[in-house]
């Protein structure tokens, strides 16, 4: 069971009958360490031969990297491949910043028609040789299936198989496939190519506005872009938070965590704890809406006890903004009961946490400066934003959904 969990990189559940749960067992440890499934050497050799035939000296290899690379902990291998000439790297939304977004080979984040930069979109959609590594093809990772590349024509390196053209290689594990890819590209000696300067869709400098200007998404995210420091784990909840965070350009040694495949609201709040325990050298920064936070808010007590320096931005817009944008903006079921959010940390046993509320540009700037000075302290910041306001990416996606629906 444990070997299957490791091999698939998925959760596993073991059911123990009640009548044996308290049974005495031998106190014996596993004599051998658990190992994941291994690739058959003959299948791997056949895969390598096919890949060498596919990769030519005059080619450019465009890698589209997905979240399963994270699950396997193979980020460093992708980064090593990115150093080779002739390689460009784009990431799916669920693996944003898997390569430093300022790296010369970086194309930034690919989201189909809604990709922030046209050059990034074209580099993937029109790639002469597209290699999909650990990708997930879903509505959100493809800009609601607005991608123009043909997956069947690309090389696919998945968790437990590979596909090159119409040839399938079952049982080729991703970590072995990446080693083969690195070796093949190294031997091909491709010509150097330049990536896209993956600038953010959020301007580095905030729009000119007075300090007493009420906050909007257009004002909020540029301030965040300027504020985020290296070694930050950005955790963005499904909704306006994720759509805003995806347009950021993250600094070095940073990640974006979220739920872009299932969009399970409430997931990211307890994920703060796991992210901090996994990488204690990074400061976790959470962006979450009031509707989502109400589902898992009780976990804040544990987070504030175990994570000494988290920063939470509670986006209070009094409802499910994504749903308002897609359909029925006036429906009462889109509303969220308003809570006294600044009081929540103390109720959950954390009176030491700073709990400012910000509603203007000046208030936000003051709090951001304070969090930078006090990097060893926790902040729970309530951000007042308009009900019908949204980040750029959400607006573009909704326009695409509306256009698609009008053609049905």
Q: Which SSEs are present, and which pair or pack?
A:
Elements: H1 2-8, H2 41-54, E1 61-65, H3 68-72, H4 75-82, E2 87-91, E3 106-109, H5 118-125, E4 130-133, E5 155-157, E6 161-164, E7 167-170, H6 174-188, H7 217-227, E8 232-236, H8 240-245, E9 255-257, H9 268-278, E10 283-289, H10 290-296, H11 300-306, E11 311-316, H12 321-326, H13 344-347, E12 357-358, H14 361-373, E13 379-384, H15 392-407
Helix pairs in contact: 2-6, 4-6, 7-14, 9-11
Keywords: Decarboxylase, Lyase, Magnesium, Metal-binding, Thiamine pyrophosphate
Organism: Kocuria subflava
GO molecular function: magnesium ion binding; pyruvate decarboxylase activity; thiamine pyrophosphate binding
Keywords for this entry:
single chain; 408 residues; alpha/beta; Rossmann fold; seven-stranded mixed sheet; six-stranded parallel sheet; 15 helices; 13 strands; 34% helix; 14% strand
What does this structure look like?
- This protein is α/β, with parallel strands linked by helices and 408 residues long.
- The chain is built from 15 helices and 13 strands.
- The strands form 2 sheets. Strands 3-2-1-4-5-6-7 form a 7-stranded mixed beta sheet, sandwiched between helices.
- Strand 5 (155-157) and strand 6 form a beta hairpin.
- The radius of gyration is 23 Å and the shape is globular.
- The mean pLDDT is 90.
- This is Alpha-keto-acid decarboxylase.
- It comes from Kocuria subflava.
- Belongs to the TPP enzyme family.
């Amino acid at each position: 069971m444990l070997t299957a969990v490791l091999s698939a990189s998925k959760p596993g559940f073991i059911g123990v009958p009640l009548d044996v749960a308290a049974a005495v067992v031998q106190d014996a440890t596993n004599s051998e360490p658990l190992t994941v499934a291994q690739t058959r050497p003959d299948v791997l050799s056949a895969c390598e031969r096919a890949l060498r035939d596919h990769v030519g000296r005059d080619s450019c290899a465009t890698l589209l990297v997905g979240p399963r690379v994270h699950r396997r902990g193979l980020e460093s291998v992708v980064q090593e491949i990115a150093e080779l000439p002739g390689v460009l790297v784009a990431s799916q939304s669920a693996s944003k910043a898997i390569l430093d977004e300022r790296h010369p080979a970086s194309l930034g984040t690919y989201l189909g028609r809604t990709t922030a930069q046209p050059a990034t979109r074209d580099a993937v959609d029109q790639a002469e040789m597209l290699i999909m590594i650990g990708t997930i093809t879903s509505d959100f990772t493809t800009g609601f299936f607005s991608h123009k590349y043909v997956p069947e024509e690309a090389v696919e390196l998945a968790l437990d198989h590979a596909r090159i053209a119409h040839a399938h290689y079952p049982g080729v594990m991703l970590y072995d496939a990446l080693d083969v890819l690195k070796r093949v590209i190294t031997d091909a000696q491709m010509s150097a190519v330049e990536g896209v300067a993956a600038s953010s869709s959020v301007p580095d400098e905030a729009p000119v506005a007075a300090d007493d200007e009420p906050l909007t998404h257009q004002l909020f995210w540029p301030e965040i872009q300027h504020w985020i420091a290296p070694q930050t784990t950005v955790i963005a909840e499904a909704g306006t938070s994720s759509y805003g965070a995806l347009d950021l350009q993250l600094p070095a040694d940073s990640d974006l965590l979220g739920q872009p495949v299932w969009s399970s609201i409430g997931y990211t709040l307890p994920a703060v704890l796991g992210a901090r325990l996994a990488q204690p050298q990074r400061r976790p920064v959470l962006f979450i809406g009031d509707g989502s936070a109400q589902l898992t808010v009780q976990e804040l007590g544990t987070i504030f006890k175990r994570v000494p320096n988290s920063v939470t931005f509670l986006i209070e817009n009094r409802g499910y903004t994504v749903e308002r944008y897609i359909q029925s903006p006036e429906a009462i079921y889109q509303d969220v009961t308003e809570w006294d959010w600044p009081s929540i940390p103390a109720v959950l046993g954390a009176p030491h946490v700073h709990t400012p509320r910000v509603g203007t540009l000046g208030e936000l700037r003051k709090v951001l400066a304070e969090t930078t000075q006090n990097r060893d302290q926790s902040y729970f910041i309530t951000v007042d934003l308009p009900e019908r306001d949204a980040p750029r990416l959400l607006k573009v996606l909704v326009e695409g959904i509306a256009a698609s629906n009008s053609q049905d």
